[in-house]
Amino acid sequence: MFSIFHKILSKKSNTESFDITIQPTLPMIDNDGWISPLPAVELLKSELRQKYLNVLWQQVSMTQDMFSSLYQKPIERYAEMVQLLPASEAHHHSHLGGMLDHGLEVLSFAAKLRQSYVLPPNAAPEEQSKQRDAWSAAIIYQALVHDIGKIIVDIEIQLKNGSRWFAWHGIPPQPYKFKYIKGRDYELHPVLGSYLANYLIPQEAFDWLAQISRGISSLMYAMAGHSDKAGLLSEIVQKADQNSVTLAIGGDITKLTQRPVTSFAKQLILALRHLLQHKLKINTPKGPADGWYTNDGLWLMSKSTADQIRAYLLEQGISVPSDNPKLFSEMQSLNIVESTPDNTAIWHCRIKADSGWCPPKAFTLLKIKPEIIWENVNDRPEFFAGEVYVEAKNNDSKEICTTESAISEQNLLSSAEPTKETADNLIQNEIQSVPETKVKDNLIRLTIGGGGVDGSVQASSFEDEAQNMESNKESSEKSLEIKSTEEKTLATQKPDTISGKAFIDWLKLGISTKKLAINVKNAKLHIVKGHLFLVSPGIFQDYYNSLNISFTKKDIENLQYAFQDLKLHKKYHLPNKDSQNFWKCSVAGPRKSSKLVGYLIKDTEYFFGNQILIDNLHLTLIEEIQNE
Fold it and tell me: Superkingdom, according to UniProt (predicted)?
């Protein structure tokens, strides 16, 4: 089959090996967030990306000249098109360069999976042998373009001169920034992908593939999004894509083969998304609702949600467990709902709205990660104006409706310094932390920040907070009292939790397992000037909440003192040569700005290892005085 391609290309082989050069590459971002465009040789020279290319080289049997013409050059054009754009806004490969990493990973998976298929199906063995290389090329080309439409449909790229850049122009001529488009049409992904294929794949390759009618037809159908007509070619690339996505989000790809092509998990997620969009009421401020969206996740009424999921799936002709316990167990096993500490799907929670609405009894709820329901962070609703309290075993929580919330972040004052957190963290997520996967060894990772600020939320200035501190102290202390005798007893039974070492261990574990958000909306951790910024007192409240332990203002103060005793934080030097423990950060928003207060940790390697940290571009450390 390659003899035909040789005639079309009119090239001969000179070498028989594929050389790779392993050199690290770093994204070039200036202080204003402009990303410098890079040529393919720079984009592809990292160790990880060279490994992907080497895997592809090992799966095809050809000379280096042919490999360069068929695959290397299209991949280079692909790299220059996608540059350092992410593959998704808040899901898999959402880091700088994520689209390129994902694309190359899918290529390598597809090339490997292709070896397990005999193509074309039902053809004579000699015909299958003759067409083998052409079908391999068709699969690799489909893998190359399967997601590239996103960089036009989902993302708007702006050049430094203010003009918009489109992928079909090739390498951006100037530094660029990007943002995700709200309300985008996902069905356009394959349409634009098939269009961009003409810029990536050489005409000689199309001429070659056109001589295999079934092969070129399958490729065209797959590129256009008609997977039902593309047959095995589309199936192979879909499996490769699933493997890449599963690895990126920390899943087990060996379990993918146990599920149908259209998995029950996907059907459940589609049902939940449909119900949230058309049926379920959430965050009702003054009365009953079907669910509540908080900083901890999305909480849905268990029975009514299960009943509506069942009704929706049955309407679609999809088999579903007839009783709720089995359905809950299925959702739990598929990681659609989060498990309780007792490894059950049902959470017993109390609801208390700021409006005063507070049901006397606990609800049975399902807890779901918001990224499962809303892939686009801009589609997520505002947080519930109130609290969802998880009931502990044998915990009498009758007092919840007659007392104030156990802790109020806005009124909590730190006795360690005459400052307090002046605003919730309102940083919107453009690019999230880089996911780590098992197969990437010790390769370079990017933990990046970015995003806008919700300017509709006002923040008091630090000066006003300092002036009002004393007047607020008495009312704040009242709001922090633990009314329940049982809660008071619980609060005294935490000798280890006030340990600074225990807090640091919790912080490190949360960062390494991605349970603690960084540089995203409502996160308490940010990267500022290469340092780790801990928003106070929010991060300390999160620590106690994660342990399901009641706490008082004094507990927070003691924990802050214990943390300070470890001397991990960097002090802020005042003009009078004195110093204080807290730093301030200004948060730049589209309409308004606010400030945050917290600790600054210089030794980030303890928490992130060798990861390369990139600052959240919307936070600016306030440094009037040169510090150590």
Answer: Bacteria
* Cα separation, 128 vs 6, whole angstroms: 19
Q: Where are the alpha helices (DSSP H) in 210-231?
A: 213-223, 227-230
DSSP 410-459: TT---SSSS----S---BPPSS-PPPP-GGGTT---EE-----B-TTS--
Give the CATH number of domain 438-621; options: 3.40.50.720, 1.10.10.10, 2.40.10.200, 3.40.640.10: 2.40.10.200
Angstrom distances, CA of residue 134 to CA of 67, 96, 208: 13, 33, 8
Give the 3-state secondary structure of residue 160: coil
Q: Rounded to whole angstroms, how far apart are CA atoms 164 and 158?
A: 5
Q: Which CATH number fits domain 25-251: 1.10.3210.40, 3.10.50.40, 1.10.287.180, 3.30.1330.10?
A: 1.10.3210.40
All CATH 1.10.3210.40 domain ranges of the chain, comma separated, are: 25-251
Q: How many CA atoms lie within 13 A of 574 on its CB side?
A: 7
Give me the count of residues in the chain: 628
Question: DSSP class of residue 36?
Answer: P
The pTM of this model reads: 0.43
Residues ≥6 apart with Cβ < 8 Å to 60: 67, 71, 111, 133, 136, 140
Contacts of 360 (CB under 8 A, 6+ apart): 398, 401
pLDDT tens, residue by residue, 121-161: 888 888 988 999 999 999 999 999 999 999 999 999 999 99
Q: In which residue ranges of the chain is CATH 2.40.10.200 found?
A: 438-621
3-class SS of residue 30? coil
Closest to 331 in 3D by CA, of 275, 281, 263, 258:
263
What is the C-alpha separation between 208 and 216, in angstroms, rounded?
9
Question: What DSSP assignment string belongs to 52-94?
Answer: HHHHHHHHS-S-HHHHIIIIIHHHHHHHHHHTT--S-SSSTT-
Give the CB-side neighbour count of residue 428, counting CA atoms within 13 A.
Answer: 21
Residues 300-340 pLDDT 10s: 999 999 989 988 887 766 778 878 888 998 898 888 999 99
Q: What is the DSSP-derived secondary structure letter of residue 340?
A: P
176-180 sheet: strands from edge to edge: 164-165, 155-159, 176-180
Main-chain dihedrals φ then ψ at residue 165, nearest 5 degrees: -110, 140
Give the list of residues 6+ apart from residue 120 with CB closer than 8 angstroms, or none.
Answer: 127, 128, 131, 135, 212, 214, 215
Please give the helix or strand (H or E) that residue 155 lies within, else none: strand 155-159
Tell me the three-class secondary structure of 359-413, residue by residue: CCCCEEEEEECHHHHCCCHHHCCCCCCEEEEECCCCCCCHHHHCCCCCCCCCCCC
**Is the pLDDT higher at 256 or at 619?**
619
